[in-house]
Amino acid sequence: MSEIYEMDEQTALVLALQLVALFSIAGALLLYLLCKIRVGNGPEASGSTPGGGKAVLVTSADNSVGLQIAVHLANRGFRVFAGLKDGASSGSPDDSVPSRVIRAWQKHRESLTGQCQGALVALPLDVTREDLLHEAVDIIRAHLPAGEDGMWAVINTSGLSYRGRLDQQDIAHWDAILKTNVVGVLRTARTFQGLLRNTSGRLINFGVPESAEAGLVAYTASRYAVEGASNALRQELAPTGIKVVTLRLSGVSPELLHAPPKLDTKEERSDISVDISGCIEYQPLVLTECALRVLDVAITAGAPCNVYSLAPKGHWANPVSFFKSLIV
Q1: How far apart are CA 234 and CA 13, in angstroms?
Q2: Which H, E and C letters describe 241-294, residue by residue?
Q3: Of 262, 263, 178, whose CA–CA distance to 220 is shortest?
Q4: CA dihedral 290, 263, 136, 190 (to 10 degrees)
Q5: 149-166 per-position pLDDT tens digit
């Protein structure tokens, strides 16, 4: 009898472990469905595409992260205004890579039949220059549909980074980092506050990296300053309906994040590679598909979280952590 009793206890333990595993899987699926429902009930549900033609400004498409975000959101149906220090392209071979990518995207979109709500408009913008910021407001207003005078989101992708030991860095590098990464965010918030207020839009900034790296003291300090400023802006702008969202990116070095894009060329020829959407292919692509999905939630959710983590692809190994990053 004792042996049978012991066998029953072991069987019960195995069954209990199986039930725990089953409930864990069911819980992960439930979290996934909740995320989908939350996104589906957001403002993007009213349009035929997730963006619904809503206006979004990406302050800098001169770097890898900014260009990738601009193209991604345009493909998702947003009317994207992409800031370029050199302005819109002239069609010359000497145009910058971002200008050529944007021009190729525009030509491909013009060739498509049917109703396409997405758009990608390049405009001259430098967050360190007050005159260009105000000119950008006028350009955006001129491109908005009749009767509209507001923006859905402003995404601050402008940034600089310099790596090196603190005692060996030029102080001019610190000044440039703070002027672009911190003061640029404040200038942008002040300049576009009116357009965001009209739509109860959102201001999206990149905050503190999830892991500190050696040789990036000034850059890390600037990101802490941006996150602190975002927290203060969130409280100050709340009465106006403007939402302030912070994105935390891990697994990507700042040099890669702000690197100027380069065109992909086929090895056997010097031809420029083009993807199936007609867009010129370029490198580096710093955000994974997982991170872009989180970005979509941050932009489209009716009541976005204060902070989102743009987790690297490796975080798919822990789906519970990924789902938590979407809804917590």
Answers
A1: 50
A2: CCEEEEEEECCCCHHHHCCCCEECECCCCCCECECCCCCECEECCCCCHHHHHH
A3: 178
A4: 40
A5: 899 999 999 999 999 998
Question: What distance lies between CA 66 and its chain's CA centroid?
Answer: 8
Q: Name the token pair of 34.
A: 């909740």
> Are the CB atoms for 245 and 298 separated by under 8 Å?
yes
Q: How many residues does the chain have?
A: 328
DSSP assignment of 189-245 equals: HHHTHHHHHTTT-EEEEE---SS--TT-HHHHHHHHHHHHHHHHHHHHHGGGT-EEE
Coil, strand, or helix at residue 57? strand
Query: pTM of the predicted model, to two decimals?
Result: 0.78
Q: Are 245 and 205 in contact (CB under 8 A)?
A: yes
The four Cα atoms 74, 51, 315, 274 give a dihedral, to 10 degrees, of -20
Q: Over the range 202-225, which residues count as b (16 or more CB within 10 Å of their CB) and which as e?
A: bbbbbbbbeeeeeebbbbbebbeb
When mean pLDDT is compared across 36-50, 176-190, 248-262, 265-279, the lowest value belongs to 36-50
